[in-house]
Design goal:
homodimer; Methane Monooxygenase Hydroxylase, Chain G, domain 1; 88% helix
């Protein structure tokens, strides 16, 4: 029975990693679609999201099954409930990549006002934060999770720079650019939200690891 | 033991209701702050959010404790895991009310371009959807949850109307309005996201109720 539980836990871990990979791909593809005005690729992100939604439900079901079958306590219980939260975060992140893709489709083949630099940079940061947060979870790595939390202010700053430029250098100077600028404003907001969700994941990991530490301290105290 | 578990479940229920009330208040106050350019009220929403964050952690802790102590299965287990998801949604909704308040503070005491009508309407819809979704959860009411899911397209439409008006009637005609219009664009997006989260809650409720129905059907089949 014990070994079976470990196997189920490992499976939950690897399923979450797969879910994370699909999500990172959605972020990457939605930004590629934006850069290259590739409406087909944007549609592909939206199509692929159904698979991610199904995977979320599958993972949640297996986590609930794990709880029902093995009735874990302490660290294992907390690992599973944290996994469930992270699973939901990943699905939300994939939804935000869908939002980016929807904006790309709305924009159609209108040329970009200027080459995009900061938005792809924000997208790269978002993807990196998601990856690092998931690695921190899998490895119970508090330090790595803390770095993700610190990166969030970088994302906020980058989003502010993007917003200021789009407002002051484009819309204020020439109001007719607004219909082309607003989707970019929204996209930068979607990407910043992805960074927020990666931060939530990292905070959950820190909380999970620290609860374990506190529990260990309590157990050590009891032993004395 | 059985009775104790029921009491703990009831407590979880009432704590979630309190959390929902705090969240609805944040939505209401952030929109009042917007309407009346009341920066102090906006700051109050941000301040109050710390309490909501603490409450989220408390509820999650008691849910995990419930799982560890009583090791529930089937419907009870699913009710608790759904409660945990809803708890996280409510915290996110409160964060979005904070986002609205942050935009209000950024706008300072600049006069509104015109009396706000559709944004308060979207805010009322958001608050109603949250309230109905929580009521659906507490009462295991699938029909009520389905109505919330249907309302989401209304929110999307309203957001579109707001965006089109702000872009075409203000920014395109006079680019210098952009710094005052963009916060309103973002606020309407925040409010639409609140409606999305209310929809997620309603979907979770439907899923929870249907899983129970499926389980009941299985049990009835077994009895035959």
């Amino acid at each position: 029975m014990e070994r079976h539980f470990d196997e189920d836990l490992k499976k939950l871990n690897s399923e979450l990693l797969k879910m994370a990979t699909l999500t990172e791909e959605s972020i990457l593809k939605s930004t590629e679609a934006l850069k290259n005005k590739d409406v087909k690729l944007a549609q592909n992100v939206i199509e692929k999201d159904k698979e991610i939604d199904r995977k979320e439900i599958e993972i949640e079901e297996s986590a609930i099954e794990l709880l029902a079958l093995h009735q874990p306590v302490a660290g294992d219980l907390r690992f599973i409930t944290t996994g469930m939260k992270i699973n939901a975060e990943l699905e939300r992140i994939a939804d935000l990549a869908v939002n980016v893709s929807q904006r790309v489709i709305e924009m159609g083949d209108q040329p970009h006002l200027k080459p995009l630099i900061d938005i792809p940079k924000l997208s790269d940061l978002a993807r990196k934060m998601v990856k690092e947060a998931i690695d921190a979870f899998v490895n119970h790595d508090e330090e790595r999770a803390k770095k993700v939390v610190l990166s969030d202010s970088e994302a906020d700053k980058l989003r502010n720079v993007i917003h200021k430029e789009l407002i002051n250098d484009y819309m204020v100077k020439d109001g007719s650019t607004a219909p082309r600028v607003v989707p970019l404003l929204l996209i930068s907001r979607h990407l910043e939200r992805i960074c927020d969700h990666a931060t939530y994941i990292a905070e959950d990991v820190i909380y999970m690891v620290q609860a374990k530490v506190i529990r260990h301290q309590r157990e050590t105290l009891k032993e004395k």
